Amino acid sequence: MAGNFWKSSHFEQWVLDKGDLLRERGEDLKVYSEEEYQKLMIFFTNFIQEMGQCKERELGTQCNENTRDRPIQRMQAIATACVYFRRFYARRSFRDIDPFLLSMTCTNLASKVEEMGHLTHTKLTATFQRAMKKWALFDPQQMSLYQQIKHHHISETEFCLVELLDCSLIVYHPYRPLLQFRNDMKNACVQNAEHLYQDAWRVCNDSLKSDVALLYPPHMVAIAAIMVAALMRGGYEKDKELKNWLAELNVDYEKILEIQQMLFSMYSVWRTFDEQTQLKGLLEKIPRPNQINQTAHNVHIQ
Length: 302
Description:
CATH superfamily of the largest domain: Cyclin-like
InterPro entries: Cyclin-like_dom (IPR013763), Cyclin-like_sf (IPR036915), Cyclin/Ssn8 (IPR043198), Cyclin_C_2 (IPR031658), Cyclin_N (IPR006671)
Protein name: Cyclin-like domain-containing protein
Helix content: 55-70%
Largest sheet: none
Pfam families: Cyclin_C_2 (PF16899), Cyclin_N (PF00134)
CATH class of the largest domain: Mainly Alpha
Domain Cyclin-like: 46-173, 183-265
Keywords: Cyclin
Distance between the termini: 45 Å
């Protein structure tokens, strides 16, 4: 995996510089503080993950359970959609394409790229509406706007997305490196390696709510997730086997520490994010799409 990653378009084009990322967000950061922007991204990551879970339930009976890696593939499809979403807004503003429309498009495109099955427009729309109901964000009039999304809106938005991504659709995630690290930890007799792996998996899922997938290679995110999981479980300072195993890894621990700090910062913001009182105001501040520059944009928040 590592050799492929270093030769991939993910590494060559989509491991971004943090300063450049903040500059690209300049237009949206005129509307939102950095913390508000992070809260909005936390919400849309949760929204895409909910769409993915709704899709999984819809297609669950069609899944080939004989495929051992199927759980990883399912999570990768959701994670890929989240990364597409973040990559788009790393280069463009919310003004360019409505984020709810883009969330549908990213979910649909990721499902195809990760070979998780084609979603008909009817199923995609139903999945979107079920996810919307979880938050009960809009009144019936506003909901009717999103119900007007047609297949050609998704197709046009997908064209814009693929063009911005420069057809770099293969995304490397921390799940497979994490699986290899689990096996290595077991061989090194690290205590509770399986439980640590499961906790780190959840941290990898949560990492999509931060910028780490845009800034760091996936194996580094996996290592940071293991360390964060160990710290959250407690007893890290006394876990000699884990410390010895980590010490033998050939990795830049300054960057691992940066990832850890970003993850803990994300968890701190997430804990203070009261969706009941804060989300509606954040959504109302989303800039309206540019009528000239967007072709799939007649669906937007009023």
